[in-house]
Design brief:
FAD/NAD(P)-binding domain-containing protein, FAD/NAD(P)-binding domain, binds NADP nicotinamide-adenine-dinucleotide phosphate, binds flavin-adenine dinucleotide, 22% strand
Amino acid sequence: MRLKKRSLNTERKTPPLSQSSAQSGQSRLYSAVTSSSTIRRVDSRNATPDSGLYDVYGAVVVGAGPAGITAVGNLLENRIDRILWVDHAFDGGRVNQYYREVPSNTKAKLFIEFATAVAPFRESASGSPSGDLAKEQRTSEGISGATKSDKLRDLSDKLLDLQRLDQESGCHLRYAADLLLMLTEGLKRTPGVIAQTGQVTSATLHESTATWAIDVSTEGDSPQNITSVQAQRLILCTGSSPIDPPLPYEPGGLKHLHLDTALSPTKLSELLSPLGPTTVAVIGASHSAVLVLWNLANLALTSKPNLKVKWFTRHPLRYAEYEDGFIARDNTGLKGEAAQWARNNLEPETMPDSLISGMITKITYNKGDEESAYREHLSGTSFVVQAIGYHRDPLPTLRTSSGQKIEPLFDHNEGVFHYMKQNASGSIGELAVLPGVYGAGIAFPEKVVDKKYGHEEMNVGFYKFMQAVKKWSKGWKAVAV
Ligand SMILES: Cc1cc2nc3c(=O)[nH]c(=O)nc-3n(C[C@H](O)[C@H](O)[C@H](O)COP(=O)(O)OP(=O)(O)OC[C@H]3O[C@@H](n4cnc5c(N)ncnc54)[C@H](O)[C@@H]3O)c2cc1C
Ligand SMILES: NC(=O)c1ccc[n+]([C@@H]2O[C@H](COP(=O)([O-])OP(=O)(O)OC[C@H]3O[C@@H](n4cnc5c(N)ncnc54)[C@H](OP(=O)(O)O)[C@@H]3O)[C@@H](O)[C@H]2O)c1
């Protein structure tokens, strides 16, 4: 990726929401229909070579997966505009890039509730910011009750596709991915939002004004090519990726098969089908591991009978439990089709009689005994898939204007970050809130306590991101300027 010089865009820009609502009253949600030909206004008196299209942005949102989409929707809902939205590709994040073939572990209705939870989404979904949906009273409750069918009538085909599914069951994530693409396009056209393809590389905090100078590395030609801006808020929705570290013991010739590939039946078949007899090791026992085992089993039972699997697990399978009014192990337990397949095929009482019994060999061990388990059982294995969790994608480098590197610590209850603030003498001071920086999504989820077992879990999922950001974004307004 190369750095580009910003070219000052002299296109006129629609007034920000805060101005337009002051001019035209609170009931007008959006004053203009947007399109590529929208007339835009730039206040050239304030535009500086380093400012992008606005002198100071209300927020820079990093990432356009479900979390970034949620953040932009909630900023607009809270009447914070002048948003610079940055993503590598604006293609729905990892769900669309890698998991279209994965069955969801959430019910179809939750994707609809996500897509209709804030007015800017409903307007995006309807394709018309000035249409009927825009005239509804803005609420933070999403849609519900008697008004639901009216409000959904105008939603685009993608939302209708999802609506036609059994709402109480899961669905393939391609439906959710298409929804994300649709919302992305709608939000990109919304006044007050500027989308910039690229990577946010660094941000510098000016502590006296609590503003951030944010650097963007852009690639290719885009209308603005913004590379440096000032902003009051920085919202990190940067996502997480599967971990695939070296094993404590690896026999010669063992290849790592990436989890993203193994979660796609199509890619898995393309890779393995041309090969001769193949043994694949799968490590893990949560959602990803079960789906990989299922994909491999389907392949072996259809087109590749010479495929064998060694399944390495250090704990029994855990299932979500549907209690009266809540779900125990809501985030860590198996759900949906994956849970059903696991019950039918992988449990000690079902595995011996399952069609997959001759194909999958289960190897159990205790945490800490990985090396000896691998030494004993990995020989003769061609590939290993590690389904052992995700880690945060790299964050932009953060520092203060005096050059102090900031190591942000996320608060999973409040959605804010803390950092070690230097005191006046330049020595390390105390932990302070990092002004204007917020997180959301799989990298920065809300922490919840399991109501049945009492352990803590990270609340991960489209609708959970929405619930957290709706709560947290009330505090996003309180930024000193
Ligand atoms: C296999 C799998 C299945 C799942 N199934 C479900 C499900 O059924 N239902 C459900 O509700 N949830 C599900 N989830 C959970 C969750 O919805 C997804 O993990 C989702 O992708 C997380 O969204 P995100 O926006 O946090 O991150 P991502 O989707 O990873 O998006 C992050 C975005 O940020 C961009 N980015 C990162 N750093 C920068 C930077 N410095 N500059 C610019 N751009 C940057 C990336 O390019 C990317 O587009 C699933 C998760 C996994 C792993
Ligand atoms: N739509 C879907 O169906 C779907 C599919 C996949 C993922 N997801 C979502 O994506 C997120 C990540 O899920 P995930 O299943 O990939 O990971 P995860 O929930 O983080 O679970 C990782 C698992 O790997 C185990 N593990 C870690 N190191 C191990 C080792 N060395 N040997 C054996 N086991 C090891 C852990 O066991 P310990 O508990 O012992 O540490 C844990 O069970 C979740 O939010 C999930 O809901 C959804």
